[in-house]
Amino acid sequence: MEWTGIKQTRLHNARLLQKSVGGQKGMIEKTGRSQSQLSALMGDNAYKPIGEKIARSLEEDFSLPIGWLDTWHDSLDEPTTSIQDETRESSARYSAYTKFGHRIKQARDHANLTQEQLAERVRRLAGTENFKQQSLQKIEAGQIQSSGYVALIAEATGTNGVWLTTGKGSMHEQPSKPHTKELTTEQIELLRALISRIERLTLTGRGTTLNSQQKARIIAGSFSAAIKNGQTAETLEDGIFDAALNSVI
Question: CATH topology for 96-143+150-175?
Fold first, then answer.
């Protein structure tokens, strides 16, 4: 399909980025997008134009200034200062969940893990098979706004869970309370128990009205309260979980 104007410019520049990482396989790993989506957007027979949201997401994936994709480039070596100066204020157009997905990807890159390797580590820590590579792919692509597995992703990547969730602090700065630099075995078991309770809540129908952000808040609130009160997975009181649940719904 032949396009003109900004559609053609974005297609040209996206193909340039894809070439810079060795082709489609490298682009899948770099952006977390699926093969079918990349083929539709920038393949030899691309048929779907690159919209505003995807354009900005690709720029963030490659640490490029906002608006880079909208100006024709013959190579990746061209200066981008003027583009960055002209478009600095447009950064507000990024939604919080896209930034969340980007932070998850940064953490994964920091740990030098593929999506499947990170998903496997989280499954092992959580003691559940419910966290799949496809879920991680959707998080990084901005299709999922939050996750109840953030604390375990932080543990698996050696990064700061507060930074992953909110963007505050630094990637490597660890919160002082109630967490230590690394989760203890008891704390990991406690997280597993809380995640299991959320899953059972959904299965019984009580949690059908809860979105992923609310579930994450319930787990975080329960975890903090349990640590403060010296509770473990074996001694966890129903009141702690129920209090966190009632504060959300």
Answer: 434 Repressor (Amino-terminal Domain) (1.10.260)
* Whole-number Cα distances in Å, 236 to 223, 225, 230: 10, 10, 9
Measure the CA angle with vertex 133, ends 142 and 195; round to 5°: 85
Residue 136: the pLDDT is 87
Q: Are 116 and 101 in contact (CB under 8 A)?
A: no
Average pLDDT, the chain: 78
Residue 208 to residue 19: CA distance in whole angstroms: 43
User: What sign for the dihedral angle of Cα 119, 98, 80, 4?
Assistant: positive
> How far is the C-alpha of 150 from the C-alpha of 132, rounded, in Å?
14
Lowest mean pLDDT among 33-37, 81-85, 211-215, 241-245: 81-85
Query: Look-up: residue for tokens 């507000």?
Result: 92
Lowest mean pLDDT among 80-94, 118-132, 212-226: 80-94
CA dist list (Å): 42 to 24, 39, 120, 142? 9, 6, 30, 19
Judged against a pLDDT cut of 80, whether residue 80 lies above it is answered with no
Tokens of 220: 């975080």
* Pairwise pLDDT comparison (234 vs 176), residue with the higher score: 234
The closest of 182, 186, 189, 190 to 223, measured between CA atoms, is 190
Q: Where are the domains of the chain?
A: 5-94, 96-143+150-175, 177-249
